[in-house]
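Objective 1b. Sequence-to-structure analysis of RING-type domain-containing protein.
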Amino acid sequence: MISTYQMGVSTDRIRGSPGLNLDHLECCICHEILWKPVACQSCETPFCSACIRQWLNEYPAQCPNRCQAYNERKCPPFVAKVLSQLKVACVYDSNGCEEIISYEALDKHEVECGFQLHRCSGCQSEILKKDLNNHEVNCEAIEIVCPDCRIVYKRGDATKIHTETVCLKEQLRQLRNESKENKREIHELNLQLHEMHLLSPWIKEMKITFDDLPLTTDETKRMPIVYRGLKWNNMKYGYELYLSKKHPKSGYINCFTPGSSPNIAFFKDDVSFGVVTRNDSITFYSLTACAAWNDDLQLTITGYRGSVEINRHTVTLLFGKPQFILLNWKDVEKIILKSAGGTAHPDSGGLSATHVILTQLTIGPAD
């Protein structure tokens, strides 16, 4: 039976059916009363549908009665008629159910029966289905999520772990964090607006979002040595669908937004890019970066003219939160990016690594 067992109905459960010869209703595989029977077309012997499926898995196309081949048909009508006259005790009678059900209504009853045992999600005790809701309303081991502060605690620990003072302090902490995040986002928006004022109407030509690189659905690839008029060393890039599938717990996922480039660039530890021809130079306006695995990852950006360091900027990157960094460095020949430090983000699956994600670079010619 679907609700409680795979094979037939035990003869011990048959009630009030005097005069019926139950031997004719027995499955010759499980030797119980037929349940959802089908029959062999050749010998017309009925079997429980679950029993014959299991048999055929072991002996394909063979009838248990050694017919030449097993071809299935509906149960003979006279067998179905006799089965319909049976009255059967609920399988949960040992739990207190006193219902006697017709054979045809048995499946529906046992799916809905209030005397089946369910496990409490808190204390893990087995409770009758009909009593489960009332039990879980009062069970001290049930976990509760506070709608105000979102702390998770067990009902029985409320007076220790989730006092009114604790709740208010947690709400205040969350508000402060949200305020910091809002200030950071406003600061970045102001930087981007400043860049747009500086570069408009040439910003589209200067912005590199890696959207013109070939899509790689099954791997990441190295950046071409020469790309967008610059020479690249140690930079890789990847496609949104591949990275989302390969690293579902990484910061890569948060870097793709509707309408953005399907590619992102990334590197581990260090990378460089710069002019192809000596004595050429560029203006490095900005980049947008975030950490792929760690929180508080240190990114150091250094600009060179020849072998001389002329600019340096260090910024702290967060896991999966792209950060706009405005530089406006002029007359630069080479840029080196280095990452270090940080700790594994709680959502990264415990992996700690110094990978940095780049979603855009804005680079123009020297003035």
